[in-house]
Amino acid sequence: KMLKLMKLRSASAFLSRSYGSGSVPQRKVAVLGAAGGIGQPLGLLMKLNPLVSDLSLYDIAGTPGVAADVSHVNTRSAVAGYVGEDQLPRALEGCDLVIIPAGVPRKPGMTRDDLFNINAGIVKSLCSAIAKYCPHAIVNMISNPVNSTVPIAAEVFKKAGTYDENKLFGVTTLDVVRARTFYAGKAKVPVEEVNVPVVGGHAGITILPLFSQVTPKANLSDEDIQALTKRTQDGGTEVVEAKAGKGSATLSMAYAGALFADACLKGLNGVPDVVECSFVQSSITELPFFASKVKLGKNGVEEVLGLGTMSDYEKRGLESLIPELKGSIEKGIQFAS
Ligand code: NAI
User: Fold this and answer.
1) Is 46 in contact with 78 (CB distance < 8 Å)?
2) How far is CA 26 from CA 76, 138, 158, 212, 270, in A?
3) How far is the CA of 258 from the centre of ligand 1 (A)?
4) Cβ pair 194, 184 in contact under 8 A
5) Which pTM was predicted?
6) Considering only CA atoms, which of 39, 141, 135 is closest in space to residue 92?
7) What percent of the chain has pLDDT over 70?
8) What are the backbone angles phi and psi of residue 261, rounded to the nearest 5°?
9) What is the gyration radius of the CA atoms in the chain, in angstroms?
10) Ligand 1 centre and the CA of 25: distance in Å?
11) Are 144 and 106 in contact, with CB atoms under 8 Å apart?
């Protein structure tokens, strides 16, 4: 058994942190939007994750090819492709975790909120199916605007009578990934050692990195911290502009999505002390949803952790993001009801 575990470990050493003793449970994971720019590399990364036993790749087109391709990778998980709404039930049945990167991405000049009209409808219909076919699954919402799509999902689940606030997550991991990378570059510290919480939401000024809590500490000026904050907030736009009309972040997003999904699976499997930032139902501010550090466990959210001590600059950032985030949350709730 030990040998098998070691083999599984080395198969994707880059994704897996330490894993407790005992056998690895069966876990079915679905990616909805699996033929897209994020969905394809995310499907591949989930195929490399030894915690996954069944990988379900769903999209409205293109998934038979993606699934055939990914299925040839010699790792643990079985892979199945599902295409079109008729096949959505089978894609979802028995899922422990559903990752949603379905929907349109930004083009230059667009905000995440400009995606609302199209993506809100896609998310609503996918979540109705989740409520029906895998109501107990953990949901990782990647589709933008996350600040609104998470409240939409919550409303859909509430109406279906399946809402579990501990199992719905807006994926903000890419903001953390960016904050780590940008900080390491500026502070000249090893990037793999950097840890920094990013709180608030997932759009523009609602993205609030707390560099006052970063480790390892470096002596950066206030100007440097403000520039790093701005760059983290605009990281997505940096990619949208560089891609010049061909979409938004896909590869770094797939990496971030795989990292967050891995944390959710570890939590489900009982690995202790798994903490990631995520946009979840929350009571740490006046808003019903908020991103902060979250402890993950066997039932999803085990504990929503507080904001910790913030600098005056961060406190001002928090104050100014609240109205915008509040508006986006209300827009989502309104759409769903
Ligand atoms: P894409 O256009 O390359 O792929 C989207 C996929 O969704 C397509 O394959 C499309 O067929 C599929 N799709 C559309 N309607 C569907 C439905 N009803 N059911 C299942 N699949 C459906 O877009 P990309 O670049 O992969 O981005 C996807 C989403 O992720 C966008 O909303 C984007 O804004 C968001 N995103 C979120 C980030 C985050 O940090 N949370 C970062 C980057 C992008």
Assistant:
1) no
2) 10, 15, 28, 40, 13
3) 15
4) yes
5) 0.94
6) 135
7) 93
8) -60, -40
9) 19
10) 29
11) yes
